[in-house]
Design brief:
The chain is of the alpha+beta class. Helices cover 38% and strands 11% of the residues.
Length: 211
């Protein structure tokens, strides 16, 4: 660099080093506080029993770790390494460590149909807690389905869909006035769009206010 290409002078500044922990996912603390206010960890621990041993991560720690990964933009279990390598995030969440991708995979493979139902029951308990706080007097339900492409047809339920993609074809139900995802149901990729819609609608109605 020479004096000819210096644009201007910079005022004096000091460089200092502090023992401060930073985080690139500070917004996750809002998710944690919201979950704590609804007693999400306590409900999950009381309803879910996937673990066979008391040691290691609790049921709620395992589930919330996956939730944080999704909220932070994680697409795969390997993205958990981003949170694991962020000391500031762990400090904000009040945890010493977050599940490794391999541990998360092992945990998810233990889920049975009964465990999934237990998780859905936890969700219903949470929905019941917030119903009294919601102001909408009208319930407009928007039913939808979508293809979620997978990288392998070897995964259970992963099949070729009508559009040629290999993956899953879940159903969704949204409450328009509240902007809430009321319910969802995972289906095989080759399921017809209207498959199980009547049963699913019956499940959805049970999850909204009857008043």
């Amino acid at each position: 660099m020479s004096s000819s290409n210096v644009i201007g002078r910079v005022g004096k500044f000091n460089i200092s080093f502090r023992d401060t922990t930073l985080s690139s996912h500070a917004g996750l603390v809002l998710v944690k506080e919201f979950a704590s206010a609804l007693a999400v960890p306590q409900i999950i621990n009381s309803e879910l029993s996937v673990k066979s041993r008391a040691r290691g991560y609790s049921e709620s720690e395992a589930v919330m770790g996956l939730v944080y990964n999704l909220v932070a933009g994680g697409d795969t279990l390997s993205d958990l390494e981003v949170l694991r390598g962020d000391p500031g995030t762990k400090e904000l969440l009040g945890v010493e460590k977050i599940m490794a991708p391999t541990t998360a995979g092992e945990h998810l493979r233990k889920f049975s149909i009964g465990d999934i139902r237990d998780l859905q029951r936890s969700n219903r308990r949470l929905q019941q807690q917030v119903r009294a706080l919601q102001q909408a007097k009208t319930v407009t339900i928007d039913l939808d389905s979508s293809i979620y492409e997978q990288s392998s047809a070897q995964k259970q339920g992963s099949r070729k869909a009508y559009n040629g993609e290999v993956g899953y074809h879940p159903l969704f139900a949204f409450w328009e006035e509240e902007g809430e995802l009321i319910h969802s149901h995972l289906r095989r990729g080759n399921a017809y769009t209207a498959s199980k819609v009547v049963w699913f609608m019956h499940e959805v109605v049970q999850r909204v206010s009857q008043e």
